[in-house]
């Protein structure tokens, strides 16, 4: 049996590509190895409510995700998180609000009171000496950790940068390439003359408004809407169907060949075995009504007695979650690897991080995710994490672009003919 296009993998990357190709008039088949679509955009049921089990928001940069949501009829359900700040749980066990003017924790104003409060005056003064260094100093650094260490000192790296980078990128800043942290950071240091000035310039250049947004009711609604539209457009979606082999003109599934131009949307996880476990707790804890740690905390790697690397206070961050769980609280803790006795560990950590004991856990879930897709996608058209980078703000426009390029190329010819193309 032949399709014009075969999409391998039913995460957001695969669904966006399948939808676009179907809109362009091609007969598309999508194979998904598991029984559900969405991949890392997944739903979980806890305390009778559906919440996100992995991705819970999207970066608003570029506008592609919002544009897609608009096309799918979800524009009115785009919501922004509470503007209250995230906090930092420090190496000495105390907590402070994360300085307001930073980029990944790098301060734009090293002597601002919130920076001094977070790392101490001496360290803040060392960081401020960044302004006196030649612009070139540190700009040949191979990692973000090295760049910040050279320009602002160890205390900024350990006290501000490392917890944020660990929370956002699941890695040490010493392993994070400068360009992956921000593609323009190195050039801005050279142009602006210092790291702090570069941070201020990059912050000023980003559009006003929230840098991230979510969907009322959960990010997984994007997957439901994409799947509905794909089906409406005639995409054949085969669940529980792992693709065993891939070539330029077809795939093998269940030992049988299916012909068609292949779009890879399922990169195997990188073989470094990195795993991330999320534990969500729904708790009865009146001490949390005032959101004592804002929308959540990032944890310094050396914080004593806490295994979590970040905590999100979901009912403080998203109004729709608070509305769905009246009088209760949902918190989500992230762990590198898989913690022993995850729910007990998370309950203990939540009490320490939020500064209020968690006496009653009403419900709990635990999900472990492989992190980091292998970058090798071969020569075939590829969408999704491995081809576009992590995160929906990268994956959605890349998958749209890749599908459009494919549809305009000679590599794919509609079996049913251009005259029969569907209108989109
Ligand atoms: C815990 C967590 C939190 C996150 N939070 C955010 C966030 O808040 N904002 C954000 O933008 N991003 C977030 N991300 C990242 C984001 O979710 C991913 O980058 C994105 O969803 C990846 O989409 P994808 O289509 O590339 O791949 P995936 O979602 O991994 O989908 C790939 C699909 O392919 C299927 N598949 C694999 N092999 C085969 C095969 N051989 N045959 C058929 N099917 C196959 C898989 O079952 C899967 O369904 C988060 C990720 C995690 C794990």
Tag the structure with descriptive keywords.
3 domains, binds flavin-adenine dinucleotide, 424 residues, disordered C terminus, FAD/NAD(P)-binding domain, protoporphyrinogen ix oxidase, domain 3, Polyamine Oxidase, Chain A, domain 2, 21% strand, 33% helix, alpha+beta, 18 strands, 6-stranded mixed β-sheet
Description:
The model is unreliable at 417-424 (pLDDT under 50). The chain has helices at 12-23, 64-71, 113-119, 121-128, 144-152, 154-169, 178-181, 185-192, 195-205, 220-232, 314-317, 319-324, 342-354, 385-388, 392-408; strands at residues 2-8, 28-31, 43-46, 49-52, 58-59, 78-79, 87-89, 95-97, 212-215, 236-238, 243-247, 250-253, 256-264, 275-284, 296-299, 310-313, 329-336, 360-370. The strands form 4 sheets. A 7-stranded mixed sheet has the order 8-7-15-16-17-14-18, with helices on both faces. A 6-stranded mixed sheet has the order 10-2-1-13-12-11. Strands 5-9-6 form a 3-stranded antiparallel sheet. With 424 residues, the chain is an alpha+beta fold. It is built from 15 helices and 18 strands. Helix 1 (12-23) runs parallel beside helix 10 (220-232), helix 1 runs parallel beside helix 15 and helix 5 runs antiparallel to helix 6. The longest helix has 17 residues, at 392-408. It is 33% helix and 21% strand. Strand 3 (43-46) and strand 4 form a beta hairpin. It is globular, with a radius of gyration of 23 Å. The protein folds into 3 domains: 2-40 and 219-269 and 373-420, FAD/NAD(P)-binding domain (3-Layer(bba) Sandwich); 99-205, protoporphyrinogen ix oxidase, domain 3, CATH 1.10.3110; 275-370, Polyamine Oxidase, Chain A, domain 2. Flavin-adenine dinucleotide binds at residues 8-14, 31-34, 39-41, 54-58, 242-243, 265-266, 276, 278, 369, 384-385, 390-393, 395.
